[in-house]
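Subject: for your reference before the review

Hello V.,

The reviewers asked for a structural picture of the protein, and I figured it would be easier to keep everything in one thread rather than splitting it across files. Below is the amino acid sequence we used in the manuscript, unchanged from the supplementary table.
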Amino acid sequence: MNFFKAIKISFFTGCFLLISTLCYAQKNLSANEFDRKMKENTELYQINIDQAFQQLPELLKLSRKLKNQKAEMKIIDRKCRYFYSKNLTDSLIVQAEELEKISSNYQDYYFEAMANVYLAETYSINNLPDRAIQNLNDAYDLLEKADAKSEKVFFAKANVLGSFANLYLDKKQPKEAAKKIFQVIKNGEQIEDLEKRNAFQYLNYSNIANVYLQINIDSAKIFAEKSLAIQPKENFDERNLMTNYTVLGTYYEKKEDFKSAIEYFHKALKINKTNGTDLNLNEIYLPLQRIYSAINQTDSAEFYRNKAEAYDLKVMNSKYNSLQKVLSKEKDQQKFSPFKYLYIVAGMGLLSAFGLYYFSRKIKSAVENDDENRTEKTGPSPEILQQLIELLEKNDPTFLINFELAFPDFIASLSQKHPELQPSEREFCAMLKLKLSTKEIAKYTFIETRTVQNKKYRLRKKLDIPQDVDIYQYIDQI
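And here is what came back from the structure prediction:
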């Protein structure tokens, strides 16, 4: 009896150990697969932040399933950085508060500090500098409690000082901002590894170049070129490269070397196109509008004026929403002063922009619903096409943005096939893609029918369209 009992116990013990081993192996495999996905997302973030961002919801679920707290905070931090780079302050404040709560629960000083940095940005954008300074001071105090030998903490402290600099820039105190960044540059000299030191100073020289646009344009150029000279060969932040090109474009505009200015501004826009960073785009659109006006390229000037207005609408919409969240938080914390109701009045003024923004939201929603309801891609629905025509009729500056939502591959394919086209010519091709007649284009763009015909003729020559091929047919096949 005891013998059979011993065999039974051994059997069940063996089964238990086998199942435990398999479960442990499966968990390890899942953990290894997760680590691989996190690494790939980190690399993708440097190349295209939009594609990287789309992976974050799945990674967040996996991190929580595996109870990987560090990864969970890292992913939420990555969301914050995405919304910051996109100027979506309403989404940023929500994610920053989530990061602050989770990192506080996990007692992670680094990520709690970063949450305060992001919250400071939202307060700064909404003209609440005192609250922003409070958050930055809290961030620095938290980092003082963290591991002093940690390289990550060292860079985070530099990030806080950089945020102080941005705050001083917003307050129109560029010299104070420069002091903060020079302090970061001085601290960077402590980095012994030359490659790491150059990567660190590459960012700092780019930042100081941007500050010196408000102090001395010649110094701004020197710092931008200094940054470019030590640009890392790989895995570098393209936002700073975009800043360097913008600084150089601004320098050459001031010197009236418009050809060089256009070249650098378009280099910056190319980064925006590939990487997805939308931060401070009007520092590119508005100068391009001025330059094209100065050289009498009115179509291109008008194109960038419209781009600037559309960008402003997007930013104002986000600022309005974030302002409501800021005020709500202030009230919840019982630190709300009656004087701060003035910010509500300022925010309500942004509602006037929503009329223009309305169609943009409607188009995007319609495109998303259209994609969900159709199994085959047959082109935008008649409803979307009609909404695009309505935008043209109203001379809405968001037309081209919404056209690209409806026809996501057209402009890219057109530009690749005919890189010599001017922005205004690409917009004209968009109207042809909608199959608008000469009379309709003339009506919606407030120009003469003959002018439209001349545009078509010049476009045919530029695209080298054979005489026996209809221009609408050619455009439709792109």
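For the response letter, the relevant points are probably these. Residues 56 and 446 are 45 Å apart (CA to CA). The chain is about 80% helix and 0% strand.

Happy to draft the paragraph if you're swamped.

O.
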